[in-house]
Structure of Thioredoxin domain-containing protein:
Amino acid sequence: MPRQRWSGFLCVLLALGVASPATAAQKNTKAGNQGSPQSSARAATPAGPKLEWLESFVQASKLARKQDKLILAYFAGSDWCEWCKKLDREVLQTPMFVEWAKGNVIPLMIDYPSPDKDQPRAVAKQNEILAVNYNIAKVPTIMFLDADGEVVNRAGYDTSCLRPEEKKGSPLLAMAHFAEVLKGRPTGQQMKDYAFLDAAAMTEKTGQPVLVLITRPDSKLAVETRERMLKSTKLAKFVNTNMAFVNLTWPAEDDASPQAKWFRKFVEVHKIGPAPIQLVMLSYGARKLQHKILVIDQIDGVINNLAQQLPRFDYGGGWLTDYRKAQSISAQTQRDILLSFTSFDSSEFCQKLDTEIYQKEEFKLYAKKNLVLVRVDFPKNSEQAKELKQQNEGLADQFDIRGYPSMVLINAKGQKIGTAKYMKGGPTAFLKELEELRRRDFERRTLTSEQVEVKKKK
C-alpha cells in the first residue's frame, strides 16, 4: 500500500488532536488489564472453519438489510497491532466464534494495515472515512451496526477478549456479550406512529411539522418500500426527533367507513394524488401542505430531502441536555457541538469551569454564534431520568471519557474534532483553543492533505 496515503491521513488527524486508530493503539500500550500480548504464549490458529470477512461497507449494509442481521464491524491493525493479533487468535478465529458469526451477523473488516501491506485504494479511503465517522480512537474495536450504519453497541479489547481464567478456544464471556447484544437488538428505533389528530395537536404546541406516509396496498413495491422505511433506525431517529409521524393506507374504493371518508376528504383538501407511495409533510398543526416526496429510494436521500424542509430552530445558545436534538440543530445551523462532560455536585474543577468560563459573557457570545452546547452531567447526589442517564453513559463510553470536566468538540457532520480539559486563563484562553480546533477541522474538510502540509510549513 502506498505509504503516502496512510501517513497523509495520520498527519491530518494528528494536526486536529484526534488520534487515528493506529496512533491511538500504538500509544496505548495497555489495551486491557492483561500483560503484553507479545509476552503471552502464541497459540496456533485454531483449526476449523474460517470466517469470510467483507471489506465493503456498502456490501455489508445491503446484506444486513436483506438478511435482517446486524453488521459486526471489526476495526483492526491486522499486521502490526499485537492486541488485534491476540484477539484474532483467541476469539475471532476460534470455531466457536466463526460458527456463531456465520449464522448471526454480517462480518465486516475495517483494517488499518502498515504501509508494508497492500490495500486497495478504495478500501483504504473508505476505512479512513469510517474511522472519523465512528470516532474510532483505538484498535481493536468491535462495533455492531444496523443496516443504516447506526451504532447498536461498541466493544473494546477488554470486553471481547479471552479471559485469563477461560480455556483456549472457549471465549465464553465474550460470546455471551455478543449474544446479549443480539438479544437486546433494537428492532429499529421504531418510528413513533401518531393518530392524525394527535399529531396535529402535538405539533401545534411544538411547532414541528407532521409527516404523513401514504401507501396503496395494491402496489407490492410500495408495500415493500414502506416496510424498509419503517425498519430503518436512521430514518426513525431523524423523524422522531424532528416531526410527528402518521402512517396511512389508501382505502379501497368500496370502503365506506368513517376513517375512509375522512381520508378522502383529507386528500381532496390537500390535493394529494393516488401515487403508490408518498410522503406528505404538513406544517405544524397539520395546517397546510408543505412538501411532497413521490420518489422514495435511498434512506439518506429521503432524510436529506426532508431536512431541507424543516422549520428553522430558534436556538439562542443555551445549554441542552438532549444530544439528539443538539445534532439536529447542529446539522441545520452548521454549528459545532460542544459536549461538556461534568459532575457539578462532586467536582471542584467542574464548578471552576462553569464560573470561570461558561458564565462569562465572552464565552456566551461566542457560543451563541458558533456552538451548540450540550451538558452531559453525572450527578452523585441526585437522581437522573433513566433515559438521560443512559444517553450520558453512552456518550461517555463513545468518547472514552476518563474524568470530569472533559470537553469534546464535534462538527456538524457528527465527526469528532478534538478534546479539551479545564484550563486556567478564563474564556479567552479556552476559546483560542476551540477556535484553533475548528479552524483545523475546516481545513481538513476543505483542503487536501498535501495542502494542509504546505500550510503547516509556512
